[in-house]
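Researcher: Please translate sequence to structure tokens.
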Amino acid sequence: MNINTQNARVLEFMKEGGEISQRDAYKMGIYRLSGRIFDLKARGEKIITIMRTVENADGSKSRVAFYRLAEV
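Model: Translation complete:
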């Protein structure tokens, strides 16, 4: 899958589903979501990053980035 296809899939996901996380992207075969977000921002897409603390399976906590399109 080429980068432009990945960018299109990430953008479509955000248009339809609201927010996307690395876990969502991984399920789509996209392993560098931050790279795709960088590309989309460089193209002029207005994307907001939301950092959330999530609980891991072992009970520890991690900070995770969620991305969504800015409302215009």
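Researcher: Any highlights?
Model: The two ends are 30 Å apart (CA to CA).
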